[in-house]
Structures are given as structure tokens and as C-alpha cells.
Amino acid sequence: MTQQVTRGIKISVETDFEGVFFKEYKIRFAFGYRITIENQSNDSVQLTSRFWKIKDALNKTEIVQGEGVIGEKPILRPGESHSYQSGCLLTSPFGAMNGHYNMVNFTSTRNFKVKIPSFQLSAPFALN
Predict the structure, then answer these.
(1) What is the C-alpha separation between 85 and 107, in angstroms, rounded?
(2) Cα pseudo-dihedral 52, 56, 58, 60, rounded to 10
(3) Where are the alpha helices (DSSP H) in 10-54?
(4) pLDDT, tens digit, 9 for 90 and up, residues 46-77
(5) CATH class belonging to 2-126
(6) 95-112 pLDDT tens trace
(7) N or C: which end of the chain has fewer CB within 10 A?
(8) What pTM was estimated for this model as a whole?
């Protein structure tokens, strides 16, 4: 598990290899990840948007950004957490992801970024 805390917001990431698929006549490697966002601060916060950089071993980089996460903009009071699952397809059996969440602090009304730590994606059959 990969973890990081930014301004009292703890991000934890777990990954899984989901399998090999063919899409658009090309082989794709599917990975799933589970994110837990935990508010360890003293203020209520809301996740408003996300930014992801997804890179595979062939140096192909994909940028994904948008509102919320999986259609939600969770509000987290102090001590609360929110978990969700998502995934991505790579053109190689290895890759990495990182990024950030844009959040708003309800006490100060200020926007801030919470770093999503870099985490590895790797197919177990490709490891030596």
C-alpha cells in the first residue's frame, strides 16, 4: 500500500492486476486501484476535482482530469474517510500513476491540492 498525507488529508492506494484484454485490435493490460481518502485535519473538506498522470513502460502518458471521483464530490468531516475503486488500461505490463485532488476547506473557504502519491502498476507474470 502506498500512502501520503497533505494538509491533513491522507491518501492510501492499493492496486491489483485485472488481466489482459484486446481492445481496438491491440493487447491491453488492465489494472484496478482502490483509493481511500481520510480527513485527519480539524476542518471539513470537499473533493471537487481530480488530475491523474498515467504512464506506461513504453513512455506513453495519458492525462485524466475532471470533476469529482467516479461521479461523486465527497464531503469529509474530521475523522471521516471515503473509498472508491477505479481502473485503467495500459499498453504494457508495467506503469505508474500519480496526480492530485483539488479540494476546498469549508472553514477557510480556500482551495488546495492534495497530492496522490506515485504508485506502480505491474503484472505479476512480467516480474522476474
Answers:
(1) 29
(2) -20
(3) none
(4) 999 999 999 999 889 999 999 999 999 999 99
(5) mainly beta
(6) 999 999 999 999 999 999
(7) C
(8) 0.91
